[in-house]
Amino acid sequence: MQPQAGYESGDVAALVIAGLFTVTCLGLAWMEHRDSRQDKRSEDRDLPES
C-alpha cells in the first residue's frame, strides 16, 4: 500500500500508532467505567432494606 501524496511513511506509522493508542485508552476507560457501575449495583443489592 503506497502512502498518499504528501505523507511520508513515518507519518502514516505515527498516525496508526496514535490511533491504536487512542482506541486502546478509550476501550480501557469504558471497561473500567462499565465495571464500576456493575460494582455499585451489586453494593446496592447487599444493603439491608430500611
Q: Can you describe this structure?
A:
The protein is mainly alpha-helical and 50 residues long. It has a domain of 29 residues. Helix content is 76%, strand content 0%. The protein has one helix and no strands. The longest helix has 38 residues.
Radius of gyration equals 21 Å
Sheet with the most strands, sense and barrel status = none
- Label the structural class: mainly alpha
Q: Determine the N-to-C terminus distance.
A: 66 Å
Amount of helix: over 70%
Please give the oligomerization state of what you see: single chain
Shape: rod-shaped
Order of helices and strands: H
Percent of sequence in beta strands:
under 5%
Stretches where pLDDT is under 50 for at least 5 consecutive residues are: none
Number of strands: 0
Please count the helical segments.
Answer: 1
Mean pLDDT: 82
Primary descriptors:
50 residues; mainly alpha; 76% helix; rod-shaped
Brief digest:
This protein has one helix at residues 9-46. It is mainly α and 50 residues long. The longest helix has 38 residues, at 9-46.
List the SSEs and their pairings.
Layout: H1 9-46
